[in-house]
C-alpha cells in the first residue's frame, strides 16, 4: 500500500521547510518534495521606497547573510546611479563579504553539519548537535566557535554591528577604516588559520567513512554557476559569472549582472514558495543548475591565494572534471573559509586600505539596475526598476538557495530511494534525507519569494478537528 512520509520541520536548517516522501504499492519511494512553507514579500513592499534605501531594507531580509544582500543591492543601486566606487571602498566591501562567508560557513559546517559527521548519521538525535560535538571533540567545537566569532567580529568592527550592518551604501561605504580596527583584525588572523587547519585536517580523516552518502547525496550530472575573477580564480564580490556543464564545458562566460535575465528564467511549483531558476536554452527543469561552494570550486581554475590554491588542487583530484556529488559542499565550504582568511589578511596589509576616499555620489542616471555578488550559498542577484524620481517601481531577487532548489529536490529523492525502507522507518534513514538538504546549507529565510500565482490552502476546522470548509488557490 502506498504511503506518505512527512518530515516537518527539517531540522538544523536556517529557516523552515518540510520534506514529503511518497511511496508506491511496493513500498519504494517514488516521489519526494522539499517544500519551503514560509513566504516573505520584500520585492513587493519595497515598491514606492527611494532606491537608495534598498541596501538597508534588503539587509533586513536575512540575519545570516545580510552582507550579501547589502552588496548586491548597493551594486544594483550603483548601476542606476552609473557610478564606479572608489578602489578602497571596493577592497573594504570585499573584506566584509569574506568575513560574512567565514562566519556563515562556520555556522553551517560546525553547528549544523558536523554533528552528523562526527557522531554519525545514526547517532542519538538528542546528542546530535553542537553541544554533542563540543563534548566528544572539544577542539573541533572550539575551532567552529572561533571561526564564527572571527567573521562576526570583523563585520562588527567594519559595520558597527554583527547583524544587519548598514555600512555599505550606494556609492561605497559610509566611513573609512581606522588603523586601530585594521590592527585588531590582523591580530585575529593567526588563530583563524589554526582553526581552519584543524577543521580541514579532521574532515579529510573522516570523509572516507561517508562514501555511501557521497554517492547518493544529490550526486548527479548538471550545470554549475558562479563568479570568477578576470584570471579565472575564485571571486565573491566583483567578478563575472560563468556557467559550466557537468563535463566542465563553458556554457556562458563573462556574464554581467544586467545580462542575467537574458539567460535565466524562473519556474514555480505548487508545493513550495521557493522559485526554481533555470538556464533558458535548456528549459525547465533540464536547465536547473547548482550554485555555492561546490559550484565555485568547479568553475574556478585556481583560488588566487597560496593555501587555498593547494587545497583546491587537491579537491579537483576527487573527479576527472567537475565534482558532481553534493556531499562535497562540506569540503568546499572549508576551502572557502581558508580562502577568505587569506583574502582578509591580504586586504588589511594593503597600505592603501586606510585611504579616506570611500564613497562616490550621484543621482538617478538610469531607470534600471542589477547587482550580483557571491553569497555564502552562491550567486545572489538583485534587479531594480525606478521612476525618474528614484522611487522603486519593481524589484526581483534571485536568491542562491532558490538556484539550488531543483538540485535539493532531486537530492532528497535520490537519498530517500537509497536509504528509506518503508517496512521499518528508523531515525537514521530520515536523518540522511535531511542531511542532503544540509549539504546545500539553504537559507530559507530569504529564499522564499513567490513568482506568479502563490499557492495557498485555507482550512476551516471544527473544534473536534472536522474540516468544515477548504479554499485552495
Automatic annotation (TrEMBL):
Binding site for Ni(2+): 65, 443
Pfam families the record matches: NiFeSe_Hases (PF00374)
Recorded family membership: Belongs to the [NiFe]/[NiFeSe] hydrogenase large subunit family.
Keywords assigned: Homeobox, Iron, Magnesium, Metal-binding, Nickel, Oxidoreductase
Protein's UniProt keywords contain Magnesium: yes
Cofactor names: Ni(2+); Fe cation
InterPro entries: Ni-dep_hyd_lsu (IPR001501), Ni-dep_hyd_lsu_Ni_BS (IPR018194), NiFe-Hase_large (IPR029014)
Binding site for Fe cation: 65, 446
Binding positions for Mg(2+) per the UniProt entry: 43, 62, 397, 449
GO molecular function, one term: DNA binding
Protein's name in the database: NAD-reducing hydrogenase subunit HoxH
Origin organism lineage: Bacteria, Pseudomonadati, Acidobacteriota, Terriglobia, Terriglobales
Amino acid at each position: 500500500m502506498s504511503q506518505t512520509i512527512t518530515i516537518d520541520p527539517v531540522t538544523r536548517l536556517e529557516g523552515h521547510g518540510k520534506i514529503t516522501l511518497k511511496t508506491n504499492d511496493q513500498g519504494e519511494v517514488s516521489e519526494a518534495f522539499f517544500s519551503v512553507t514560509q513566504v516573505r514579500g520584500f520585492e513587493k513592499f519595497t515598491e514606492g521606497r527611494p532606491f537608495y534605501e534598498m541596501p538597508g531594507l534588503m539587509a533586513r531580509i536575512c540575519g545570516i547573510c545580510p552582507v550579501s544582500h547589502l552588496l548586491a543591492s548597493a551594486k544594483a543601486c550603483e548601476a542606476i546611479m552609473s557610478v564606479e566606487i572608489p578602489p578602497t571602498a571596493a577592497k573594504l566591501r570585499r573584506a566584509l563579504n569574506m568575513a560574512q562567508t567565514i562566519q556563515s560557513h562556520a555556522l553551517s559546517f560546525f553547528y549544523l553539519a558536523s554533528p552528523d559527521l562526527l557522531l554519525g548519521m545514526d547517532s542519538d538525535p538528542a546528542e546530535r548537535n553542537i553541544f554533542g560535538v563540543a563534548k566528544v571533540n572539544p577542539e573541533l567545537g572550539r575551532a567552529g566557535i572561533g571561526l564564527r566569532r572571527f567573521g562576526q567580529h570583523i563585520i562588527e568592527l567594519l559595520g558597527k554591528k554583527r547583524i544587519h550592518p548598514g555600512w555599505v551604501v550606494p556609492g561605497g561605504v559610509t566611513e573609512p577604516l581606522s588603523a586601530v580596527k585594521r590592527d585588531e583584525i590582523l591580530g585575529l588572523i593567526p588563530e583563524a588559520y589554526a582553526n581552519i587547519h584543524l577543521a580541514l585536517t579532521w574532515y579529510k580523516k573522516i570523509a572516507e567513512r561517508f562514501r555511501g552518502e557521497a554517492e547518493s547525496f544529490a550526486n548527479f550530472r548538471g550545470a554549475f554557476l558562479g563568479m570568477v575573477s578576470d584570471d579565472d580564480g575564485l571571486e565573491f564580490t566583483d567578478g563575472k559569472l560563468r556557467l559550466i556543464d557537468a563535463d566542465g564545458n563553458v556554457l556562458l562566460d563573462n556574464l554581467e549582472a544586467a545580462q542575467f535575465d537574458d539567460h535565466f528564467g524562473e519556474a514555480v511549483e505548487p508545493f513550495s514558495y521557493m522559485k526554481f531558476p533555470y538556464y533558458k536554452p535548456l528549459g525547465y527543469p533540464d536547465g536547473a543548475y547548482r550554485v555555492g561552494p561546490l559550484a565555485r570550486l568547479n568553475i574556478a581554475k585556481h583560488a588566487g591565494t597560496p593555501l587555498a590554491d593547494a587545497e583546491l588542487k587537491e579537491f579537483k583530484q576527487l573527479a576527472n572534471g567537475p565534482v558532481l556529488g553534493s556531499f562535497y559542499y562540506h569540503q568546499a565550504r572549508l576551502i572557502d573559509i581558508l580562502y577568505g582568511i587569506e583574502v582578509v589578511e591580504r586586504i588589511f596589509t594593503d597600505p592603501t586600505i586606510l585611504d579616506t576616499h570611500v564613497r562616490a555620489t550621484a543621482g538617478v542616471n538610469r531607470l534600471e539596475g542589477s547587482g550580483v555578488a557571491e553569497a555564502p550559498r552562491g550567486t545572489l542577484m538583485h534587479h531594480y526598476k525606478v521612476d525618474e524620481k528614484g522611487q522603486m517601481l519593481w524589484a526581483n531577487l534571485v536568491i542562491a538557495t532558490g538556484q539550488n532548489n531543483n538540485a535539493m529536490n532531486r537530492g532528497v529523492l535520490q537519498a530517500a530511494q537509497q536509504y528509506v525502507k518503508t517496512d521499518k522507518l528508523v531515525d537514521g534513514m530520515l536523518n540522511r534525507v535531511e542531511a542532503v538538504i544540509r549539504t546545500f546549507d539553504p537559507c530559507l529565510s530569504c529564499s522564499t519569494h513567490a513568482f506568479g500565482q502563490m499557492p495557498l490552502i485555507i482550512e476551516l476546522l471544527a473544534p473536534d478537528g472536522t474540516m468544515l470548509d477548504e479554499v485552495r488557490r
